[in-house]
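Ticket #4471: structure export looks truncated?
Reporter: QA, pipeline team
Priority: medium

Steps to reproduce: submit the single chain below to the structure queue and open the exported record.
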Amino acid sequence: MTFRRYLVLGAVMLTASLGDTFLGKGMKDFGPVSVHHLGRLLYAVANPWVIAGILLLLGFFASYLTALSWADLTFVLPSTALGYVVVALLSRFWLHEQISPSRWIGILLIVMGVGFVTLGPSYTDHAPAKVPPLPEAEEVGKR
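Actual output as written to the record:
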């Protein structure tokens, strides 16, 4: 795997972790939303933390699609599990949330499980993809 691919996986992990944390911060600042007043969520989108979280999650989506274009889902999703550690640390030290020892143990078990996934190949189907050729510009104009 190349350095660029590690960067893409890092971007997937960091943008998801930061995006979720920013959304959490914004919604805590905004306050509770009732199922009976879901229209209030539209006002939450005006919160700068929520806006930043949405933008980061758009970055996550773009980098996630990029990673899925060259690796299996069963490799990409577990390889971003360090994001659980990042979210836990941000939640503990920035949002001042209390994290129980059982949650830390769960996070540790997830990250250890990722070690097993990374031992295998990132892409298991070695058959070349059958992509239809793009039509030539002249042919498109004839239609």
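Status: closed, not a bug. The export was complete when the record was re-opened. Leaving a note from the reviewer for reference: DSSP finds seven helices and no strands in the chain.
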